[in-house]
């Protein structure tokens, strides 16, 4: 494929891809074109292998895993969603994807060379900001922090006697997480809203499920609980089904 200046085979077979992922690089070794590496960084998680890769992956799970989702992220997502919806009330129409990703980094999907240069400059600016934030956070003591987040998890790792990651790896990891999550989130939400709009029966059942949860709450304005989230069976099925259809948004794996 000329786009990557190399011959390659593209697999869209779910069973084969799942087998490759499960083998933890025993069948193949991950590889990315130079254009990817210039955006994601030479010290990104996608360049680490074996135990180092698993260690960095476990760090990521501390942020996106079920425990942190239950403890903190669920309420944070609710606040963000409510603030966004309130800001749309007085507007006749909105572009959902642009609104959701208005303060987020974009995807480099099918970029022109001009756009690619913009991404490189954007990476430089974001990395400078992340390094400043990391340096600032290092200076704060535990009691000065309002909450514990992924920055703190990385700082704890860097303070170890023999840290498994360097500061450059930590910064590249933060950049990759920003890059990977924001565009997929905005596109996923846009797709879900589109599919629900085209399927009034699904929208009605979804609304009824949420109304039942609200009626059971002692305070309708209280934050969502983990138990309420887990009880959203239809919501989970409907949204996961549509996200599966958007699986092409996931960063491809080169081997």
From TrEMBL:
Organism listed in the record: Oryza sativa subsp. japonica (Rice)
Name listed for the protein in its UniProt record: Os03g0658100 protein
InterPro entries, per database record: Cyt_P450, Cyt_P450_sf
Record Gene3D superfamilies: Cytochrome P450
Origin superkingdom: Eukaryota
Pfam families: p450
Oxidoreductase keyword on record: no
Listed GO MF terms: heme binding; iron ion binding; monooxygenase activity; oxidoreductase activity, acting on paired donors, with incorporation or reduction of molecular oxygen
Signal peptide feature range: none
Sorted UniProt keywords: Iron, Metal-binding
Iron is among the record's keywords: yes
């Amino acid at each position: 494929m000329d786009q990557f200046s190399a011959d390659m085979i593209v697999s869209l077979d779910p069973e084969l891809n799942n087998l490759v992922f499960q083998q933890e690089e025993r069948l193949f070794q991950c590889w990315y074109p130079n254009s990817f590496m210039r955006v994601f960084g030479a010290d990104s998680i996608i360049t680490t292998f074996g135990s180092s890769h698993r260690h960095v992956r476990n760090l990521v799970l501390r942020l996106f895993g079920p425990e942190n989702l239950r403890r903190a992220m669920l309420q944070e997502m609710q606040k963000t969603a409510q603030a966004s919806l309130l800001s749309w009330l007085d507007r006749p129409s909105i572009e959902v994807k642009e609104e959701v990703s208005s303060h987020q980094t974009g995807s480099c999907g099918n970029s022109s060379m001009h756009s690619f240069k913009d991404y490189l400059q954007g990476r430089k600016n974001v990395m400078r900001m992340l390094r400043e934030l990391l340096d600032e956070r290092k200076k704060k003591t535990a009691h000065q922090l309002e909450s514990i987040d992924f920055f703190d998890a990385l700082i704890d790792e860097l303070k170890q006697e023999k840290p498994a990651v360097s500061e450059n790896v930590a910064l590249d990891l933060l950049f990759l997480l920003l890059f990977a999550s924001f565009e997929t989130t905005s596109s996923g939400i846009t797709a879900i809203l589109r599919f629900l709009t085209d399927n009034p029966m699904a929208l009605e059942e979804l609304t009824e499920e949420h109304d039942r949860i609200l009626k059971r709450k002692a305070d309708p304005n209280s934050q969502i609980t983990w138990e309420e989230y887990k009880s959203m069976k239809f919501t989970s099925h409907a949204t996961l089904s549509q996200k599966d259809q958007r699986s092409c948004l996931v960063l491809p794996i080169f081997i």
